[in-house]
Structures are given as structure tokens and as C-alpha cells.
Amino acid sequence: MAGRTNQAPYSSSSPSSSVPISYKHDVFLNFRGEDTRSNFTGHLYTALRNKGIKTFIDDGLKRGEKISRALSKAINESRMSVIVFSESYAESPWCLDELVEILGCRESKRQMVRPVFYKVKPSDGAALSEAANLSGWPFKDQNESRFIKRIVKEIADQLSNSKLSLDEIRDPLVVTATEVIPRLPPNIVLKETWSRPAEGYLKINYDGAYTVRKGGLGVVARDTKGRFVAAKCRLVNVESEDEVVAMAALEALCLAKELGWPRVCFEGDSVRVVNALQTSTASDDSDTYSFSSFSSSSSSSSFSQIISEIQYMSRSFQQSTFSVIHQKANAIAENLATHGLSNPEDKHWLAKPPTFLEYSLRIEKSTSSYC
User: Fold this and answer.
1) CA 355, CA 357: separation in Å to the nearest integer?
2) CA 146, CA 157: separation in Å to the nearest integer?
3) Contact assessment for residue 203 and residue 264, using Cβ atoms and an 8 Å cutoff
4) How many Å apart are CA 94 and CA 292, to the nearest integer?
């Protein structure tokens, strides 16, 4: 899941990350100085500091041809990075070097990363590749003071809920410290690459991304040859991570009904949703942990209602299975979920995928094997 939605990878080969990291800064600000230092970013920095959020801003550090050691160290010692995309952001080699370092920390340390699209659209050239698909804040013609207050509040909320071990943190999700992180049985090893469905089946991957009281749903359908069939993403109002992931699973079922496939494999990487399943069937050498029915034992009534609806809809297929997979094998659904979180309009693609997924789809198709 952005994803969270979700927990850290459940693989016996995954390195342990249960020891909390010591951070020097709460937030690292990445921005184009000549665009926003004396206005938006300067005001954001002041507001963050006034809120008690330890914020690093590059205030006159010596610039070289490459990112300085001081900046690299500051990025690595920050719990979250905020990228302020502006009109001439992409023209700065230093901004781009910092961006590469930030995305590296997101991958290796699961650092939280949130972009601000300041008077640019996420689809503009300044909003580059991977970072453009993260959950962020688009600034349009609005009150800048209120916009900054909203950003500071959401950052404060996310930071206060993220002082956990790395197993419990996954950008852009917010996980509360009182939640129990479920685990798969130790004999289950999840395959890290996406697999094609068996002959005659459609496979739909689903994921959800959650931030304060809103979520993004992402689902993608592919056939037995690994070809793209359809995808959807949209923004929803939700109260919890569990709820948005369950809604993503329900969205996957709805997409399967729309496409008219009688036999469907549904895959997601949220163990919380899987723990709502009642009956399990798995073998020691299985790559996935599959379940045949759901229970509504969650304390959330909304979550329980969604689970019940999924259970009811599942009966309308000739055959349907739900499986837990490794987060790496669910990357495209996660990408769609974070895209949905950043875009207010519902998106639906049929036969031809969105451009921001084309490369990832080609890679997964070329490296996939059959289930």
C-alpha cells in the first residue's frame, strides 16, 4: 500500500529495521531559492518553527558542483522532506541533486516525502517523475496564509503519528502508535516480483494511500500475458488507513464486474485487511498467503461494512481469490493510490495506461512469471 496503506515488507530476507533512527531535524525543505525563499518557503519555514517543528533550510551554505556533504547529511538526518516545486525549480542542478538524495532516503530509509506544487501543476515539467506522484499540496489561487497553516497542521499530525520504528512507518500513511502491527506467519515468504495470473484469469492489484481524513484508491488490472487491461484511481474521504485499503479492495471488485471477468485474482499488500479474513489456506512453499472469506471483526463499523460488501460481491464471480503480496510486487497499485490522493478528479484508463505507469508496466511485464 503508500504507501503506505501498509506495513513494511514481510519477507524473511528483509533486513531488520526495528531499531528507531535518531533524527536531528523533523523537516528538510528542498526549494529553488530565487523563486520562493523570500516569500512562500520563507513563510512556511517560519510557521513550522513557530509550531515547534525542527526544520532545516539551506541558508547560505556554500554551493559546489554537486550536493554538499552538509546538505546530504541534513537530508539523511531528517524525518520528512518537503519539496517545493516552483516555476524554475527544474533549472537548478542543486535542487535536482537534493531531490535525488531525498528520493534515495525515501527508498532506503522510508523517509516521508511530501511535495508542494507552488503555482505549478503536478503534470508540469518541474514536478519530476517519482516525486510528482506523491501525496502533496497543490497551491492555486488561494489564501497563502491559510494554505501554509494547512500544510503545517498536516505535517505536525503526520510527524506526531510517525515516531515509531521503520516497520510501522510508510509514506504517505499515518499510523497511530497504539495500533498493533500484524505479522504474517514466519513460514510465509512473499515473492518480491509481480506474477502473471493463470490462464483464463484476470489479476487486479489494489492499494490505498492515507493522510489526514482523506485517502487515495488505486487499482490496476492485467491479463495472463501481463498486458494492461484497465486502471482506476480516485480521492475519497475516510477516517483510517484500514478503511481506505478496504475501499480499494472493493474498488477492485467493482472494476472486475465492469470488465465482465468471471475468474479474478485480487492482490494487495495490507496485512490489516487480510486479518479481516476468516478462513486461510496456505502452504509452506507458497509465494502468497491466500484467503477465501472475510469476517467483520474490525472495531471500525465503516471498515466492517466494506468488508461485508466485499464478501457479498465475491460470491458473484465463478472464482475469486484474495492474496497478500510483497509491497514491491504491488508498486503500480501503490503509485495509482498516491496519484489518486493528489488529484481530486476520478481517473479511469481502459486498454491504454497513463503515461506515468508505462515504464513500470513494461518492466513488470518483462520480468514477471506465472503464479
Assistant:
1) 5
2) 16
3) yes
4) 52
Q: Are 306 and 312 in contact (CB under 8 A)?
A: no
* Strand, coil or helix: 225: coil
Rounded to 5°, angle at Cα 317 from 316 and 318:
125
Closest CA to 268 of 327, 313, 319: 327
Helix (H) or strand (E) holding 154: helix 144-160
State the DSSP code for 12: T
Q: Which three cell numbers stand for residue 226?
A: 501481463
Cis, peptide link before residue 172, omega less than 30° from 0: yes
Count how many residues are written for the chain: 371
Q: Please state the φ and ψ torsions of residue 119, each to the nearest 5 degrees.
A: 60, 25
- pTM confidence score: 0.51
Rounded to the nearest 5 degrees, what angle is found at the Cα of 273, between the Cα atoms of 253 and 18?
140
Of the chain, the end-to-end C-alpha distance in Å amounts to 21
- The pair phi, psi for residue 357, each rounded to 5°, is -110, -10
Residues 6+ apart with CB under 8 A from 202: 221, 222, 223, 229, 256, 259, 261, 263, 264, 265
β-pairing, 277-281 vs 289-294, is antiparallel
Q: What is the C-alpha separation between 58 and 37, in angstroms, rounded? A: 10
Among candidate residues 98, 241, 309, 334, the one labeled active-site is: 98
Give the CA distances from residue 241 to residues 21, 214, 272, 298, 323, in Å, rounded to whole numbers and listed in that order.
Answer: 24, 9, 9, 12, 19
Supply the angle between the helices 93-109 and 69-76 in degrees, to the nearest 10. Answer: 40
**Closest by Cα among 313, 314, 358, 305 to 335:** 358
- Three-state DSSP state, 145: helix
DSSP assignments along 180-202, one per residue: ------TT----SS-EEPPTT-E
Please say if 98 is a catalytic residue.
Answer: yes
Looking at residue 5, what DSSP letter applies?
A: -
Report the sign of the C-alpha dihedral through residues 31, 37, 43, 49, in that order: positive
| 260-312 pLDDT tens trace | 999 999 999 887 776 675 433 333 344 444 443 333 333 356 888 888 888 88
Q: What number is the average pLDDT over the span 243-255?
A: 94
